[in-house]
Amino acid sequence: MAPSFKPVEPFDIVVFGGTGDLALRKLLPGLYHRDLDGQLEPQVRIFGAARGTLTREGYQKMVREALKQFVKEADLERAKVDAFIERLQFVRVDASGDAGWDDLRAALEEGTPNDIRVFYLAVGPGLFGTICKKLAEHDLRTPGTRIVIEKPLGTDFASAQAINDAVGEHFEEHQIFRIDHYLGKESVQNLVVLRFANRLFEPIWNATAIDHVQITVAEDLGAGERAGYYDQSGATRDMVQNHILQMLCLVAMEPPASLDADALRDEKLKVLRSLRPIVGDDVRSKTVRGQYRGGAIDGKPVPGYLEELNGHVSTTETFVVVKAEIENWRWNGVPFYLRTGKRLPSRHSEIVIQFKSVPHSIFGEATGGLTANRLVLRLQPNESVKLFMTIKDPGPGGLRLRDVPLNLSFAETFHIRYPDAYERLLMDVVRGNASLFMRKDEVAAAWRWIDPIRQGWEDFNMTPKLYAAGSWGPTDATALIARDGRNWYEDAI
Ligand code: BG6
């Protein structure tokens, strides 16, 4: 049965960077989908704001094209698309100058303004503070205003604090929604449900039963057109500081008292603050940096990172492994191996909870030996939860053991469209529910842990090791985990 959705309270949303990639590829298609599912009341108004000269009709045409490109044809119902397009207005605003702000206020105040007003800053972080200041100066803030910002929230602790301060000067913390789109992914939310809605896991979710955890976000794409941004960032800032640490928090946190935003974020913060700092020689033994050179993916040749940068010399890492440790009772001695990279063999993200073996085996070698249980949460593609168990191989002829998964494949179990992460997050902004957004102290704590690692690379002159595009990263990545007597999960299948 198709799920039914409750409409959210009517709102006005202004998308700064309204003609940009994020707006056209994710935000507007996301809002369209919510409209299609009946979540947007007729009063909802959407304003694209950008520097370019564009008429309302021109903007509507642009968004119509974007929907054609980024929404599946089967979901493009003519009447619904027309109704959605009618919601759109365009205001020319110069984010760093004074032009357009009064026009924006006039447009918002025209007719019957909605109490909830969302400003989505789909622009570079350099403009976050400036836009917030202008919103204040031009009297665009209302009690129901929320502001949405997204990474990169700084490049280190100090610059993140500067952004938080600049935004915080004009908005209360409860009005600021810092998006980490991984938290909007179905499978990431499912992690919380799996842990706290099933009695089964909590008693064994600790160092007594768990040997280690692996979190992998592998991408087959390269830096490509984003190479300019990416080269300033690198895999650690781009993926580990935010998405991967957020997932680590959800795996490792204590049960929150409720799903209330602060209850949840307090627990995540405790995890971030319990991460053992990686400093000095540990930087060498607990981290690996890599950069792809040319290679092949799916049999097709692909260029190396430096070629994508047109030969520009760069020591930015496109691959990173970090062995993280959490200094508390629950996780004492349980490493969390974090790994992400571009131009790996496939797009594949998962969290692997590797349990310990049984303390004493009563089964001899001839039975095939025992494999320890493993819980694998596949985030993408093909979301699934697999719990690997050992069972008896059926049939006579002696006792043989076999490792098989209890397999919950979401695609096969639930025949629904999987919403994009932004759809859920946009509706949560309107609802004022900040559970899936990062609080400023979380962002700060994450940078505090990342900064010494990056400092160590500089101090030890640890430049990235090359790996062939289409491989699983430099051999050092295998060596790092092998030194602990373990292997990466894909080696095991
Ligand atoms: C973004 C990073 O936050 O996440 C990108 O900046 C990365 O470099 C992307 O490709 C991955 O997101 P997803 O949802 O495709 O896994």
From TrEMBL:
<feature type="binding site">
    <location>
        <position position="185"/>
    </location>
    <ligand>
        <name>substrate</name>
    </ligand>
</feature>
<dbReference type="InterPro" id="IPR022674">
    <property type="entry name" value="G6P_DH_NAD-bd"/>
</dbReference>
<dbReference type="InterPro" id="IPR036291">
    <property type="entry name" value="NAD(P)-bd_dom_sf"/>
</dbReference>
<dbReference type="Pfam" id="PF02781">
    <property type="entry name" value="G6PD_C"/>
</dbReference>
<feature type="binding site">
    <location>
        <position position="342"/>
    </location>
    <ligand>
        <name>substrate</name>
    </ligand>
</feature>
<keyword id="KW-0521">NADP</keyword>
<dbReference type="InterPro" id="IPR019796">
    <property type="entry name" value="G6P_DH_AS"/>
</dbReference>
<feature type="domain" description="Glucose-6-phosphate dehydrogenase C-terminal">
    <location>
        <begin position="193"/>
        <end position="488"/>
    </location>
</feature>
<dbReference type="InterPro" id="IPR022675">
    <property type="entry name" value="G6P_DH_C"/>
</dbReference>
<comment type="similarity">
    <text>Belongs to the glucose-6-phosphate dehydrogenase family.</text>
</comment>
<comment type="pathway">
    <text>Carbohydrate degradation; pentose phosphate pathway; D-ribulose 5-phosphate from D-glucose 6-phosphate (oxidative stage): step 1/3.</text>
</comment>
<dbReference type="GO" id="GO:0009051">
    <property type="term" value="P:pentose-phosphate shunt, oxidative branch"/>
</dbReference>
<dbReference type="GO" id="GO:0005829">
    <property type="term" value="C:cytosol"/>
</dbReference>
<dbReference type="GO" id="GO:0006006">
    <property type="term" value="P:glucose metabolic process"/>
</dbReference>
<keyword id="KW-0119">Carbohydrate metabolism</keyword>
<feature type="binding site">
    <location>
        <position position="219"/>
    </location>
    <ligand>
        <name>substrate</name>
    </ligand>
</feature>
<dbReference type="Pfam" id="PF00479">
    <property type="entry name" value="G6PD_N"/>
</dbReference>
<dbReference type="GO" id="GO:0004345">
    <property type="term" value="F:glucose-6-phosphate dehydrogenase activity"/>
</dbReference>
<feature type="domain" description="Glucose-6-phosphate dehydrogenase NAD-binding">
    <location>
        <begin position="14"/>
        <end position="190"/>
    </location>
</feature>
<keyword id="KW-0560">Oxidoreductase</keyword>
<comment type="function">
    <text>Catalyzes the oxidation of glucose 6-phosphate to 6-phosphogluconolactone.</text>
</comment>
<feature type="binding site">
    <location>
        <position position="51"/>
    </location>
    <ligand>
        <name>NADP(+)</name>
    </ligand>
</feature>
<feature type="active site" description="Proton acceptor">
    <location>
        <position position="243"/>
    </location>
</feature>
<protein>
    <recommendedName>
        <fullName>Glucose-6-phosphate 1-dehydrogenase</fullName>
        <ecNumber>1.1.1.49</ecNumber>
    </recommendedName>
</protein>
<feature type="binding site">
    <location>
        <position position="151"/>
    </location>
    <ligand>
        <name>NADP(+)</name>
    </ligand>
</feature>
<feature type="binding site">
    <location>
        <position position="238"/>
    </location>
    <ligand>
        <name>substrate</name>
    </ligand>
</feature>
<dbReference type="InterPro" id="IPR001282">
    <property type="entry name" value="G6P_DH"/>
</dbReference>
<dbReference type="GO" id="GO:0050661">
    <property type="term" value="F:NADP binding"/>
</dbReference>
<keyword id="KW-0313">Glucose metabolism</keyword>
<feature type="binding site">
    <location>
        <position position="181"/>
    </location>
    <ligand>
        <name>substrate</name>
    </ligand>
</feature>
